[in-house]
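Continuing the series of single-chain predictions for the mutant panel. This is the parent chain; the variants come on the following pages.
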Amino acid sequence: MVEEKASVRSGAARSTGRSPHPAAKPSNLSEVSIQEETRMQTHMAELDRVLGGGIVPGSLTLVGGDPGIGKSTLLLQVCRHMASDGRKVLYISGEESLRQIKIRANRLGQFSDQLLLLCETSLEVVEDTIRSVMPDITIIDSIQTMYHEEISSAPGSVSQVRESTGVLLQLAKGLNISIFIVGHVTKEGTVAGPRVLEHMVDTVLYFEGDRHASYRILRGVKNRFGSTNEIGVFEMKEEGLIEVKNPSQFMLSGKPEGASGSVVSCSMEGTRPILLEIQALVCHSNFGIPRRQAIGTDFNRVNLLMAVLEKRLGVQMSDCDAYVNLAGGMRIIEPAIDLGIAMAIVSGFKNRVIDDKMVAFGEIGLSGEVRGVSMVEQRVSEAAKLGFTTCVLPEVNRGQLRPIEGMRVIGVKTVQDAIDLI
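Parent structure:
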């Protein structure tokens, strides 16, 4: 930990030289007019979904992700589409040279002359350039490289990041310019710098996934102009990021047939249902303390479900190693996949095969009861669309579901009822 001394001239002191603003007057709620925000389409349906329908003019969006995950590539593709629509786009990079940006741009395709490039790290120069060019969209790559000359600390420090974001926020709101800022993440996966950075911006997007794998997930964790927890799925190819229209289909690609310990469950990511395969491998341990491992879901949740199976169903797995994996590389923490995890564990333990055309979802309580989940009709409809014929769900949700052609719906009250189906 390094103690840093901020500049003596704070933001409040600098603002004293300006003319005082007129006193604001409160407005009556009934007099406030509701007008739909005009959005700019990015021509990338997955990104528009996460943003809530497109880019809102005057918005400030933070894009975070691991190094090499594809943040700069995604935003450069956005620049390409927006410039093709005749909008003026300014791409400011503090990490790469113009030559490096040109090399990446050549892989993505042809660019319009509406795209302007600037390699600069001084915030004063960046601010003057934005005011003179007046672009529709500005990309800042990245916020950790920007520095304010009046702040004595080094670039990337708490003071520099907070001050730089504050200046960009004033530019976005005052000039009605949509600004995207790229933020590096720490080893815990959060954006590096002060937490206030996420509070200042309008939208926070996280780019997730293994950089050695081909699939990427763009997740919205904050959005003042749309719903949160929406996701967009992309595939990284040589020509850039390609949208994945049907995530459920690619999640289930390569699913083994006739294998024990494999169950298909359904999770809701925002308003989108996603089918995924849950795999479980249970085998006797050669050590005094059995090993438990969970990939793609909460490790503590898996231990809790195994305790419920041992206590309520008498399935003795205290001397067994257990491995649970969500195939496809996604991370799901929704409780609705509890039933799928429990069925996969018992299927792997007893070495019994579950029907390949069955999908199961529901939340499991500590008493072994199966609790209801939300948005049941969307989940079952998605399963029927992909050819599944049987759906195991909570009994409380079965009465809320209208009949779906070709789908056999089985309601269960306890986890014992579900395990009896194996």
